[in-house]
Design brief:
By secondary structure, the chain is an alpha/beta fold. Helices cover about 50% and strands about 10% of the residues. The relative contact order is 0.08.
Amino acid sequence: MVAFLGMGLLGSSFVRAMIGKGMQVQVWNRTASRATALEAYGAKAFENAADAVKGADRIYLTLKDDASVDEVLAAASAGLKPGAIIIDHTTTSAEGAALRTQTWKERGFVYQHAPVFMGPANALEGTGNILVSGDQELISQLEPELAPFTGKVLNFGPEPGKAAAIKLMGNLFLVTFTAGLSDMLSLCKALNIQLDEVYSLFNSWNPGAQVVPRIKRLTSGTYDEPSWELNMSRKDTQLFINAATENGTHLAVIPAIAEEMDRWIAKGHGSQDWTVIAKDNIPA
């Protein structure tokens, strides 16, 4: 018997997958209709969180943020079964995940943060990635349970909150990547580049394959043998900005990058590789 709190798109898909694997699932959502909709698939919906978790050995969460997790768990606490394990898939702060791990341990319960790189389709299909960190004995116990619901369980070691930090890093990349694509489409609009031409390029040229080599270049600490000088990349960046301005389209990300480039050029790095702009950001 498991309980699932938070019936958004991701949570609902997880529940449907669990039911498909023969599990009994009790569900709750702040907007009750989202929970009752899952009864058509075999879930049992409850009006309050405390009733939803009664008798459950595992309590899963997919909520909005730290505040909502704390609020919902407080509301559910009266119904928690001794020995129940809380598995939280919510994207939260690293500090919040670590604090909840300790707080619920002091209350006699186990809390495991397990954020995901999964969309609703992944949750239905059992693909994607679940991230974990913390008590390695507990993770060894939970991994066989989590594995069927994802393509891979990624274990980032014994530090509570590390998985939350990794999830934030990944989400920052996705936000930046998507905003960059939006700017790219804006430039396409300005330069009369059609979508079929965009697809034609990226079906042949996959810049995603450059992520790991580019990180290595950014973090190498050596910038004196440039493959693309900062001055030249800044020149191209200005071409983007000019084309958008002249044709009435908007760039959201590129102007901020241009400012950062200008800052490094002013410090005398214009003839170095343009990856020098990451020099002060390299983790120890």
